[in-house]
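Structure tokens please, single chain.
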Amino acid sequence: MASISFLRLRERAALELRGLCKSSLVMAVNSIKTINLTIAGPEDIGGLNLLTSIVFQDEFSGTLEVETFNEGLSNHLLRVRFGAGTSKSHIFLVRIHGRTADTLVDRNFEILCLNAYYQLSSAKRLYAVFKNGICYSYIEGSPLPLPCMEEMKYARLVADELARFHSIPVEEIIEQSKSFSFFSAHPKKYLFRPTLLQRIRDWIALLPTELPTPQETARYCDRYPKPSQWLSEVEYLEQALKNPCSPLVLCHGDIFPRNIIVSPDETSVTFIDLEYCSFDHSALDIAGYFCEVSGTASYVGYGRYPSPEFQREFVAAYLERLRKYRPVIDLNGVNGRSENEETENLRNKEIDRWVREADYFALACHMLWSIWAAIRTTNAQKEYDFLYCAITRANAYFGMKKRLMEADQPLQ
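Here you go.
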């Protein structure tokens, strides 16, 4: 924990040093401050002071306390607090984006999605966007431990929050995107259509041809699929997922354990890090959760994919909650009662269909994150072996594909 003394004189000096004034720094867009400011990193005291003074204005005085969380693989996440023990106490989060991740993330779309998600709860707020990061509400709780992901107590909470997340009105996001952009001069046009396979193709084009050392390059060339092989697998998935039954929604896209925050009383969860949000079929997020239940690359990778019973129970819980949040959505007969009472047999068949669809989306998850990790090998922190992650998830993809083909249970 680092303490940072704050004085108005230092704030003014920081402003003068940057050759800026607050009025020229800030623009408000839909109550979100956009700040022409770059924060170099967790040690950029002047930048953090300036950001805090702009966001909280006269409420900010006294001491800044900054704690750095290092669990993320792409960004710096800081928990910032001032006014502890006073009526002006505030605690909030600052995320400083990593440079490599920026090539893979649509930051403008992320902000639109984060703002839409936070609008579902008055307790959470996106305060500001700065040139290389965001400032937003602190969420009380702790990340969901990996072993807990396969406990149905927590899985039901995740299923509930997924259903709620998938109820976000996408029309509002698309409409807002027409009016403004946070990170470019011109708004980008977003279409409500699946983006998963195109994202994978785009990322394949970014795969490196060599890594920082000859040893890593040899390992990469020997053990990692070539771009042409991945492109062939994308065509396979395109056919396999031609007619999905799950609805097109706003997906979180990265249901990673540390992106799931469990409330202190363990009655709810909240998702964080919406960098990889996309318009896709909801089974993608269900599949993402199943993949993470089975392990992560820093764990003993991907050997414990959830049992069929667990998958069915999770899907059933998800569909039950989705009926609550989106009562008019078409779930192919699973959406509660129709004019004729639905039979249990039909319900079971539909749940089985969702589980089978999630299996094929799990293939896409393994492929996507394998390619992501391979791209990250070229400019990443040395304490994390992204190449191991890339190879492990590629092996998980081909292993799961083999099992699905042997089971001979296509979606169509």
